[in-house]
Amino acid sequence: MTTPRRALIVVDVQQEYFDGILQIQSPDRGQALANILAALDVADREDLPVVVVRHELPEGAPVFAVGSHSWLLHPEIERRLKPSWKRVTKDKSSVFASTDVAEELGLAAEILSDASGAIHLANEAGKVSADQLHQTLLVLLQSNFAAVATTEAWTDAVAAQKPLAKSDLGTSDIQRRAAFAG
Questions:
Q1: Model pTM?
Q2: What are the chain's domains?
Q3: Which pairing describes strands 126-128 and 121-123: parallel, antiparallel, or unpaired?
């Protein structure tokens, strides 16, 4: 197995998620921020490239409107910004859609489960709690798209220069059968 080349992509750590209408409800947003800052410390110590992504919508939008309070980066992120960090704006959910963050194929994503969060949602399709949504998204991502781990496990993997374990849909189904047997 080859040594991974990593970059830390810090996505949408903006005021909207801390004191706006989309406040993160699970896990605790203060702890998630602490884990984001810990990951930034690791990136700094290990000389990893850092990309800071900001969601940006036109003036007058209800969230992330350019120049609004909700559009601002969290003050702790703003305070730590370095000239060497790449800064990107996006107007879609994905950091990769319509940006130059990933110009080459074959990337392996690693998601820090305790440095991300979710909100309660309700719409015509139903409702889901932030806890359920966060857990569901992490399980889905681990089953097919990314390696999901805590900030501590990611820190250990960075120090060991090893990739995080990633699953696949077939393995996830086999594990599902064992988890729900009986």
A1: 0.91
A2: 8-96+109-118+147-164 (3.40.50.850)
A3: antiparallel
